[in-house]
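Give me the fold.
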Amino acid sequence: MLFGQNQATQVANDINRYLRWWDVPVGSNNLFSWTSSLLFALQYIIWRHKFADQVSKLDEIELCIIDTSDRHAFPEGAFIRDIHLVNAYKEFDNVSRYGLEGFANLRSEKYYFSEYLSQGALIIKNNCKIVSAPYIFGDALSILRPEFDLSTEQKKELADKVVRMRQELCSNTSNIPQFTDKVTDAAIKIGRRFGGQWMLPVVANLIAITPGRIDDEIVLELFRIHFTDDQRRECDPSKTKLSSHPYMPEVNRFNEIMQKIYTDYYLKQLKANTIMAEQALKNDLCNHVEVGSGNSELLENDRVATIERLDAIISLAGRLKTEVYGGGSQEPAITSRPITLTRSSRHK
């Protein structure tokens, strides 16, 4: 085990070699890389398919998405950010050039791809969805991002291409077009390849990596039409999180989309309960008029029932404020765990 070694310098060197994609012979360590950036993962598939030292056929590559909420399968510390590991070991690195110090500088700015490392075997059964790359790449994905069209000539690059694609996601809001039906249909088509609990976060991720206005009714309508209230409720920010980063607009947009879906769901519930309470109040008023003062016990029961309905509305509104806006702060609060990580191995 890499982290079981006593020599910190050797560990630092091994980490540096692994993260820089230098020769890592099979058996030298048992690290695996994951990312919460779908944009990077898709471009990495192209890299593996076309430009790696040992290229793979497209049908030999799979995208693995996991839900890390199962603490029995994924205890605390099962995943560690690459930058945290680098910062912990860079003082022991004896490489004067292209060492961990330089790597930390790269990761501190635009070349950050939300990489996580795990070590050894992970129990991902029942917590993952694996889809073969040919079911992802095709006409639908090319509609979302023409850069992923495998029929066009691809330049041998990975990080720089992801950085360029990110720039289109950072444009001024006034210059960003609305999503078309063609785009939303393409996202749904790919999302159905994952199905079940995975479809909604995958579609949200696909919309997030596609240039377009996410603060738009079209986006909310997409999730209203294709997903149930129960599915949209699972976008609860207390259950869903991808760690934000100033240089990762694709992840920030995903968080924002999930936040909007949940807010939209909860507002629907609040509206429905308000309408029911309004009708109940009208009924209570009619009962008061009809019964008069001849039956004080019935009037008291109506009064108690009315107060309970009003309390329910207040409670619902308070929960909306707390869970969606973090207890009244102006910025939405995302406070829990990652839900999607994508695996890759660099062993040759």
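Strands lie at 31-35, 62-66, 80-81, 115-119, 128-132, 342-344.
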